[in-house]
Amino acid sequence: MLPLLRRNLLQGTRRYATAATASNIVNIVEVGPRDGLQNEKGVIPVSVKAELVTRLGRAGVQTIEAGSFVSPKWVPQMAGTAEVLTQMERLPGVHYPVLVPNQRGLDGVTSLLATQPTDSTAPPFTDEISIFTAATDAFTRANLNTTIADSLTRLEPVTRGALDQGLRVRGYVSVVIACPYTGQVDYVRVREVAKALVDMGCYEVSLGDTVGMGTPAQIAEMLEEVKKDVDVSLLAGHFHDTYGTAVANVLTALSHGVRTIDTSVGGLGGCPYSPGATGNVATEDVLYALQNSEYKVAGNVNGTIDLQKMVDIGWWISEQLGRESVSRAGRAMRARRLREAEVKAKL
Ligand SMILES: CC(C)(COP(=O)([O-])OP(=O)([O-])OC[C@H]1O[C@@H](n2cnc3c(N)ncnc32)[C@H](O)[C@@H]1OP(=O)([O-])[O-])[C@@H](O)C(=O)NCCC(=O)NCCSC(=O)C[C@@](C)(O)CC(=O)[O-]
């Protein structure tokens, strides 16, 4: 326990001790620029991706997953992440994690960091990587071309290498409820993989309902299983909204002591290896749902994240992609604003 505690302190883990003493502060990890955009069919210019990250930072988001150092043959939309990191505005104290699947990905991050002038007072291009695996071999094969066991063996030296150069490491476990290839998932497997990632050195493990099929009852059961081996303060929830249960799943996770939630502005996204899955729960929907609740979302605009700005960003990026925002709160708030403007214009 002690080495783990020390490592988490070093890595600046999002903090509180146990569910019983959990604070009411909710941390948002905005994954729109990565999970949101990775599934797009068309090519998205680097300038648009960089502007998206910049806008999210200005809206008060404290952690923004900025892209991936993965094979462009596997996920073409994430090509150019190094350029995104150099072009976007980087704000002090804001984390910009990037997804890394292997040593080659970490080498890309290391090379980029080496180009940062040593006398620069600007925040680093990034201070965090995210590694990822899954709770089934079938999904791991589709996503990483290997098994769970091999992925963990590969990721161990990557994690060590990242920690050695002072980077924080976050872990993902995909398909924690259902797998698009093998169906219902064994939550014991989720617990084992999550524990392996924590033991490896991850300061936090994000549990992904990749397919977006999970119901609140299933999320609760899965979390209670994982919590047998992993302290809830080290867990995050990552819920896709395919069946419309994502906000309910967020509330369930919070009631089970989870205090970090991955969200995607405008409800962008899907997973290239989970056919039919829709985007992550929309950031705007989570911010809206948590208003006037016992929870307070952490952020850098008046101590929180600016919901109106997020609605505008959700619409802006959706229009860049040639469609409308799918955030329910984003749509309703914009419609209301337009209606009010019309009424005012008639006066
Ligand atoms: C891991 C590999 C590379 C294995 O793929 P592989 O084909 O077994 O690997 P390889 O070593 O044979 O490499 C294939 C080619 O990719 C290159 N390559 C190899 N590595 C890199 C790298 N890091 N960056 C750039 N290029 C790379 C490598 O050099 C080679 O190029 P070639 O010789 O053919 O020209 C591949 O499977 C991969 O990139 N997978 C990433 C898939 C991915 O990004 N999925 C989406 C993210 S996960 C997700 O969305 C779920 C999550 C996190 O959101 C949570 C949830 O919702 O559940």
Automatic annotation (TrEMBL):
What molecular function terms (GO) are annotated for this protein?
Answer: hydroxymethylglutaryl-CoA lyase activity; metal ion binding
Answer whether the UniProt record assigns the keyword Chloroplast to this protein: no
- Protein's name according to its UniProt entry: hydroxymethylglutaryl-CoA lyase
Which keywords does UniProt give here? Lyase, Metal-binding
* GO biological process per UniProt: ketone body biosynthetic process; L-leucine catabolic process
Give the E.C. number(s).
Answer: 4.1.3.4
Catalysis performed (reactions): (3S)-3-hydroxy-3-methylglutaryl-CoA = acetoacetate + acetyl-CoA
Q: What class of enzyme is it?
A: lyase
Q: Which domain of life is it from?
A: Eukaryota
What Pfam families does this protein map onto?
HMGL-like
Pathway, per UniProt? Answer: Metabolic intermediate metabolism; (S)-3-hydroxy-3-methylglutaryl-CoA degradation; acetoacetate from (S)-3-hydroxy-3-methylglutaryl-CoA: step 1/1
